[in-house]
Write a structure and sequence with these properties.
The structure is a single chain. The protein has two helices and two strands, in the order ββαα. The longest helix is centred in the middle third of the chain and has 7 residues. The termini are far apart. The mean pLDDT is 84.
């Protein structure tokens, strides 16, 4: 039977992301395949992934939405 699990190696031992479906004292063969590291996302990619919604004039009236009408730029 073949099962695939993801784990992180901390320098001493493997830490599996989920519980193994193996009985204690079962003899297994382990093959190590390193996975590519997740690339850190830039600010714009993170902002886009948040799917933020707001009024269309959000950027033009930023102070109004952030501080209220009291501090808005009187135009």
């Amino acid at each position: 039977m073949t099962q695939t699990y993801e784990a992180t190696y901390d320098g001493d031992s493997l830490h599996f992301k989920e519980k193994l479906n193996i009985q204690p004292n079962t003899v297994v063969r382990v093959t190590i395949e390193t996975l590519p590291a997740d690339k850190p996302k830039g600010f714009l990619a993170v902002a886009k992934s948040l799917n933020l919604e707001g009024p269309e004039d959000w950027s033009e009236n930023f102070d109004k939405y952030l501080y209220g009408d009291l501090h808005a730029d009187p135009k």
